[in-house]
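Sanity check

After download, print the first record. It should look like this:
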Amino acid sequence: MIAGYNRKELLLAVLCAVGSAVAYAIAYLFFKFAFSFVVSHFGYPELSAHSEVVSGVILILISLSGYFTWRKRGGFFSYFDSGLYHNVHQGNSSGLVVDLYMHRVTGPAYLLSQVFLGAPLLAMQSITHFRNRVRVDRQLEERLRENLEKVHRANKWQSLAAYGEDKEEILLLAKMRKIDFSPTKGTVRAKIPATKVSED
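Expected structure tokens:
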């Protein structure tokens, strides 16, 4: 059980790390070439030599923004929750046309923002998955299996207090997503359908 959970968390950590590296590479190339294009367009091509430094500074700012977003929201957010979403048509045809044209700008802008923020956010997710691994211990494994069977036998929502000294193991099972847990009520129950006690 523990070994299987650790393998999944390690795999997710690696996938998130790869995704983060790809997102950082995309952001770096985007800002590097965008800066070169802009300064060349305005007649200052010599400034293109600083494109790598500018891209590096922007990546640092993106990383800081991603970190604070992670602390505040915990991850990505939808287009409707972003500051780029708007709804100006209010049921009339002229407003609808304006709304559609605005979405042509704000839609891609939202997509780019999520790609750029994806770099630090995926990095944070990678670290979280890596740190979520559970120490491999035979006695802990046995206690987890015993408590998982107890939850299955109960087959209903129960308070954590019902498990007495086994609260830590029950919370660990919830962390491993083997059982359902309600943080607000402090109650647990078997998964629906119930998770089988596997040997992995």
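If your output differs, re-run the checksum step. Summary of this record's structure: Residues 41 and 107 are 25 Å apart (CA to CA).
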